[in-house]
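QA checklist item 7 of 12: single-chain prediction sanity check.
[x] sequence parsed
[x] length recorded as 509
[x] structure emitted
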Amino acid sequence: MSASSSTSLREEKLSRSTSAASTAFQSSRADGKDSVSRSTSLLGGVGKNKKDGKPDVTQGELGAIEEEVDGVFGEQGGADTIDYRSVGWVWTSIILMKLQIGLGVLNIPSSLGTLGLVPGLIILILFAGLTGWTDVVIGNFKLNHPQVYSLADCGRLMYGRIGGVVFGFATWMYMAMVTGSAFIGISTAFNAITLHATCTAVWVMVAAVVTYPLASLPKIESLKVLGWIALVSIVSAVMIVVISVAVGDRPALAPQDGPFTPEIKAFGTPTFAQAMNAVANLLLAFAGTPAYLPVACEMRKPSDFRKAVIFSQTVMTAFYIVVGVVLYTYANPYIASPALGTAGVLVKRISYGIALPGLFFTAIIYNHLAAKFIFVRVLRGSHHLNHPTAKHWAVWLSCTGACLLFSYIVAEAIPVFSGLVGLVSALFGTMMALHAEALMYLYDTWAVFKVKERRTPLMWFGIFFNLAILVIATVVMGGGTYGSVLNIRDDYSTNGGRPWSCADNSGSS
């Protein structure tokens, strides 16, 4: 084949695939509907010609198109384009774990202390299973509908403009508020390390200033090295505390004189509000799910997403159980929140120092994803989305800056770590980690379920299972939000907390 013929064929493929992606996305934006044929369209599988049932393109042509044009970012791999799809499944597994192992793990031990060991572990494992399933649903939905980038796109596809607005607002709020929660965690770390050397509000500002340039890197792939460091740092810091508490005499918050025996209770006796706040905090350990779809969109092979989910979910669940059980067994009822303060002052300073990269990465990655959510919506379909033009950088840096400012205000306005992370998890985590994915499964299954002859027992099970997820998520959302609000109110009343407070939040002074 001549060079001119090759170029012509490539241009034809690009034109066809771009048109298909654009048509699918515009149609989904217009009426929120997506036919079965579109779910197996040019970019998600080999499409079928409606007249004769033959493929629109061959499998070989499809592979070439997928390498050149993406359903979200457009042309990829060109000399002057930003190639967003550059992440392999191993790095995806690491970033999925870091999206989860961070703020959530720091509240697991205290949640077990509130609920008791038996119900606490049951609920932890239940959430691991439910979110593991919903994570897989995200990967499947992306393969069926290549034009979706965020859960907002999924909401628009299923329920039209209103669905897009509701899902979009909840997704962005979740990511922005997790960033704010990370700022509080970072300020706690600096207070612990420096023995509260300056006003806590100053440390929150430092967290925001350091986060901005790193969150403004254009691609998730650019954060690869920092992601590895962050995962190792947070895991190492938590394990230092676990080992120190297990081999030490008593936790730091326990009376330092007289005998000490940990209280191990199979079942706790919390109030309804306390129990639901603890449940919401356990969900947060797995509630990074809303950020999973943008990560899947930047994978070289989105079909490998399920592999990354299974690996990361298995490792995370085992880690959470070990941390929760050991700290509960040796430190209850004197478990700190965040958990890194459970051991003595020296260990606390060491563990927080080691955990700092992990805490910063949580703020960086969630600020990056919150900003990219807006960035893609603003420039989607434009030449500026995947080309480093002046407008590209102006919009991108404005997005990261605006999202950062909002998260900073949240952190300063609600400086109560346990209450804020519980509120984030209950109010937005349940909607985006459980509700949305159950609805996505039901949406993709409905086209087949309508055909009576194709209703298998497994399909019936899937329908009822996902309906049960919707019920569980609704209960946790309502009760968890109520409990978290009361927790914040009680903390303000007891400790005299106030916005833009200088008070030490690490217990160091």
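[x] summary fact logged: The chain has 16 helices and two strands.
[ ] second reviewer sign-off
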